[in-house]
Amino acid sequence: MNVLDVQSVLGWCIVINLGVLIYWFLFLRFAHDWVYQMHSRWFRISEARFDEIHYTAFAYYKLSVFIFVVVPYLALKIVF
Fold first, then answer.
1. What's the domain count of the chain?
2. What is the pTM of this model?
3. How far apart are CA 33 and CA 75, in angstroms?
4. What is the pLDDT of residues 1-57, one digit of tens each?
5. 23 domain residue, yes or no
6. Is residue 53 part of a domain?
7. Which own/partner contact pairs does 69-77 have at CB distance under 8 Å and 24+ positions apart?
């Protein structure tokens, strides 16, 4: 595996992770009540806490993607 292969893999990881983020956002945006009702059957949770959990998880996911995928991709692009 050479550097171009790693750049290609990281590039596709960015695209896939962006798709997951968009899907997650749209699902919560347009089906919020349904998702909340489904989760509240399993867990006793207020709607405000549900929103807080998803907002925090979304932030951690974005940060993880940025640190572990985007930064290495950009570093390889700069160096090679």
1. 1
2. 0.86
3. 41
4. 899 999 999 999 999 999 999 999 999 999 999 999 999 999 999 999 999 999 999
5. no
6. yes
7. 69/10, 69/13, 69/14, 69/17, 70/14, 72/10, 73/7, 73/10, 73/11, 73/13, 73/14, 76/3, 76/6, 76/7, 76/10, 77/7
Kindly report the three-state secondary structure assignment for every residue of the chain: CCHHHHHHHHHHHHHHHHHHHHHHHHHHHHCHHHHHHHHHHHCCCCHHHHHHHHHHHHHHHHHHHHHHHHHHHHHHHHHC
70: alpha, beta or left, given left = phi > 0 and alpha = psi -120 to 50?
alpha
The reply to whether 64 falls in a domain is: yes
Domain that holds residue 49: 31-36+45-80
